[in-house]
């Protein structure tokens, strides 16, 4: 998915794809479930999320639910109605969004 951006920016690109099966991928999916409380807007939806990429610059993780991408900033604590913060990005816009995030983020 990120191949074009990695080819364009090389090792400077701050996102990396997670292997389909890995300890890190599973840990990030489990971590999200800990942080999403019943009061949080993603509660219920997050059970369908698959971790697909991670930012090396911060604790942002890219999750996919089958139709949209969610960039979630993990807090590594128990969540609440506000945290973790997130942004929804359509599948059509995700590459452009990550490139802009890389260039200006």
What attributes does this structure have?
3 helices; 5-stranded antiparallel β-sheet; alpha+beta
Please render the helix and strand layout as text.
Layout: H1 3-9, E1 15-17, H2 23-35, E2 50-55, E3 60-64, E4 68-73, E5 85-90, H3 94-104
Antiparallel strand pairs: 1-2, 2-3, 3-4, 4-5
Q: Percent helix among the residues?
A: 25-40%
Instruction: Please report the distance between the alpha carbons of the first and last residues.
Output: 20 Å
Total strands:
5
Radius of gyration: 13 Å
Structural class, from secondary structure content?
alpha+beta
User: Which series of helices and strands comes N to C?
Assistant: HEHEEEEH
What is the mean predicted local confidence, pLDDT? Answer: 93
Strand content bin:
15-25%
Give me the side-by-side strand order of the main sheet.
1-2-3-4-5
What is the helix tally?
Answer: 3
| Main β-sheet description | 5 strands, antiparallel
